[in-house]
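A note from the maintainers: we've had questions about how concatenated examples are separated. There is no special marker in the raw files; a new sequence line simply starts the next protein. For clarity in this README we add a label.
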Amino acid sequence: MTISEVSKKYGISQDTLRYYERVGVLPPIHRTKGGLRDFTQEDCGWVELAGCMRSAGLPIEALAEYVRLCQTGDDTFLERRDLLMKQRQQLVSQMKIMEETMERLDYKIACYDKAVKTGKLVWC
């Protein structure tokens, strides 16, 4: 697949795909004899993984380290697992903060619902 096709398929800009390859978030992409990127199914798997991990909040540096560990071989299973567990813990913390924020917003909305019905806003 061309970089344009991959960009459209995964909703990632061509510039981002080039950047991901340059910083190690993607392994080196296969090239045609003319030097154009020719994404294989395996390359697309890495693109999909990068999109998933980035949407989960994994920093670029951590993602590049994860890819490097994957390319190093099976001796890095524990390191890869630890990297993912660390990110999972960070997401759990972020989710807790979001849940607390949602509860506060729900409370404020309920106050305004009451104010709309009664014509009075009680401090909340």
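[label: protein 2]
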Amino acid sequence: MRQIVLDTETTGLDPRSGHRIIEVACIEMVNRRFTGHHLHKYLNPEREIDQGAQAVHGITLEFLADKPKFADIADEFLEFINGAELIIHNAPFDIGFLNTELDRLGRVPVGTICGKVTDTLRMAKELHPGKRNSLDALCERYEIDNSSRTLHGALLDTELLAEVFLAMTRGQNSLMIEPDAAPRPNIGADGLVRERKPLTVRRASPEELAEHEQVLKAIDKESKGACLWLPKLDAEAA
């Protein structure tokens, strides 16, 4: 399972108005573990940066003057994300900018070369409805240190987002059962492996069954015949 946590910084909010990507960062995870591989590029947007955007990320046009253009890194970027699941906070924003940049070059959109795009903002809204779900808010909620995040930056944000994503999806591995996995040994408190005893099945007595049936009939009466378990009980008795 190869996943790429991705973030961008831009000259403004709308690629349809000609705004461009000025920073892109990708961090690779395989089987929910960091591999140490990452892609991080600052880009010359060939246009001015909106003051509002610059106030958010602090990147100036002077700093970007000698940086490569998106066209110069497009092949490397596409190769890095090829076949992976993308993990992005507010994915429509970043995907919109990336697809606009790729379209300028006559290249295929991101969705055609990536297996899946997961929007962590959407996930967070489903997990925490009615609460703030910005990256900073999620870091606070999941106790992830974001004290170094004084400005937005694609590389730092991907590192924080990766930690947030792992925290939000913690426990998924316990739900995944390998088909050929051997049963876990029964280890006692002394660390020795012990033979598992067969489970004891205790069946309800006739009195308990009769009492249970009376409870179901009361539920059926209160729900005006909507008790789902009573017909099943009658069928089993027949």
